[in-house]
Design a protein that fits this description.
262 residues, mainly alpha, 7 helices
C-alpha cells in the first residue's frame, strides 16, 4: 500500500518537475546564490526551515525504529520474570532498558508493588494511561514536520507579498516608465521565488510526515499488543497466586523477591 502511494505521488509530481525544469532552463544563467539574494531575508528564513526539515528527516530515520518501542529480548526477559513473580527484579531491569514497552511495564509494576491491594481493572488503567502517553510521545515527535509543512508556504507567501508591495509602490510613485517596466516584471518574478521555495519545502515535509506517520502507527500497534501481553501475564500470575484474597483482591506482595541483574 505504501509503495502504491509513493508511486502515485511521484507520478503526480512529474508535471511539476517538468515545469521546474523549464523554469531552470530560463534562469540557467542565474546562480543559486543570486536567487537567495533576490529572495531577501524571507529566503534566509526558508533556508533555515529547509535545514531543520532535513535534520528532522535524518533523525527520524535513525530513531523511529521498532527497537525503540519493543524488542524480543525485553519481552522474553519480562515474561520469564513475571512467571517467576520476580516483579522487583523486572522493575530494575526496566530501568536499564530504553524501549517504550519498558516504561509501560515499569509504571504498571511500580503501581502494583506500592498498591498491593489494587484490583486488576485499576492496574489495567495505569498500564493504559502510560501506554497512551508513550504513543503520544511518538506522535508528537513527527508533528514538527507537519508544522513546517504548514508554516513554509505562509513564509514564502509573505516574501511574495512584500515583493509585490514594493513593486506597486514604485508604480504608485510614478517611477515606472518605459524601460523600467522590465524592471517591474523582474521584481515580480523575484517576489514569486519565495513562494516557490516555501511550497517545495512544504511538499517535502508533508511527504515525509505521511511516511513517518504510518511508521508511528505501526509502532503504536506493536506497543499496544506488547503491553496487553505483559498485562495479561501479570493478571494471570496474580490470579494463580496463593495470596489472592476474598473477592479477587490481591494480598500484599512479599518483600523478599530476589533482585535480578539481567
Amino acid at each position: 500500500m505504501k509503495i502504491c502511494f509513493l508511486l502515485a505521488l511521484i507520478f503526480a509530481l512529474i508535471p511539476s518537475i517538468a515545469s521546474a525544469q523549464e523554469v531552470a532552463d530560463v534562469v540557467k544563467d542565474i546562480t543559486l546564490v543570486d536567487i537567495l539574494k533576490k529572495g531577501g531575508w524571507v529566503m534566509g528564513a526558508l533556508v533555515v526551515l529547509s535545514i531543520f526539515t532535513l535534520i528532522l528527516i535524518l533523525l527520524y530515520f535513525l530513531t523511529l525504529r521498532r527497537s525503540t518501542v519493543v524488542t524480543n529480548k525485553f519481552m522474553n526477559a519480562a515474561e520469564a520474570m513475571i512467571r517467576k513473580r520476580d516483579y522487583l527484579g523486572l522493575i530494575a531491569y526496566c530501568h536499564r532498558r530504553n524501549e517504550s514497552v519498558a516504561r509501560v511495564t515499569q509504571k504498571t509494576l511500580d503501581f502494583l508493588t506500592k498498591n498491593p491491594n489494587a484490583s486488576q481493572p485499576e492496574i489495567r488503567e495505569v498500564a493504559e494511561a502510560e501506554g497512551n502517553r508513550q504513543a503520544g510521545i511518538l506522535t508528537q515527535r513527527i508533528s514538527y514536520l507537519a508544522d513546517i509543512g504548514g508554516i513554509a508556504p505562509m513564509v514564502g507567501l509573505l516574501g511574495t507579498v512584500i515583493g509585490m508591495i514594493k513593486s506597486f509602490m514604485e508604480i504608485a510613485n510614478g517611477n515606472i516608465e518605459g524601460a523600467k517596466q522590465l524592471e517591474l516584471a523582474q521584481g515580480v518574478w523575484e517576489a514569486l521565488i519565495t513562494t516557490a521555495a516555501g511550497l517545495v519545502i512544504s511538499i517535502i515535509a508533508m511527504t515525509f510526515y505521511s511516511f513517518f506517520r504510518g511508521r508511528v502507527q505501526s509502532h503504536t500497534a506493536e506497543l499496544e499488543a506488547a503491553s496487553t501481553h505483559i498485562l495479561a501475564l501479570v493478571g494471570s500470575q496474580l490470579s494463580q497466586s496463593h495470596g489472592l484474597g476474598p473477592g479477587g483482591v490481591s494480598q500484599p506482595l512479599r518483600d523478599d523477591y530476589p533482585l535480578r541483574d539481567s
